[in-house]
C-alpha cells in the first residue's frame, strides 16, 4: 500500500513535519509517495539520518516535469 502526499501547495516550513507524520502512520512494508516542486534530496538525507524505519535503499525519485518530482519513501 502507498499513501500520496502532494507538497506543492504546502508552505515550505510545514512540509517536512507533514512528511514525518504521514511516514510515521505507515505500516512496515508500505511506502509514502510525495509529489514535490523540487528534488527532495535534502528530505532524503534527513530521513536517512533520523528515521530508522526509512528504507533508503528502496527510495526512488522521478522528475515528471519542470516542477514535478515524485518520490517514493519506503518503510522497513
UniProtKB/TrEMBL annotation:
InterPro entries registered for this protein in UniProt: DUF2249 (IPR018720)
Boundaries of every DUF2249 domain copy: 4-73
Segments of skewed composition (Basic and acidic residues): 1-12
Pfam families reported for this sequence: DUF2249 (PF10006)
Region annotation (Disordered) ranges: 1-21
Protein name (record): DUF2249 domain-containing protein
Amino acid at each position: 500500500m502507498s499513501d500520496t502526499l502532494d507538497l506543492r501547495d504546502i508552505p515550505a516550513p510545514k512540509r517536512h513535519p507533514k512528511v514525518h507524520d504521514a511516514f510515521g502512520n505507515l505500516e512496515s512494508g508500505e511506502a509514502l509517495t510525495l509529489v514535490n516542486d523540487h528534488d527532495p534530496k535534502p528530505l532524503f538525507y534527513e530521513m536517512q539520518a533520523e528515521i530508522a524505519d526509512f528504507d533508503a535503499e528502496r527510495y526512488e525519485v522521478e522528475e515528471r516535469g519542470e516542477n514535478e518530482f515524485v518520490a517514493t519513501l519506503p518503510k522497513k
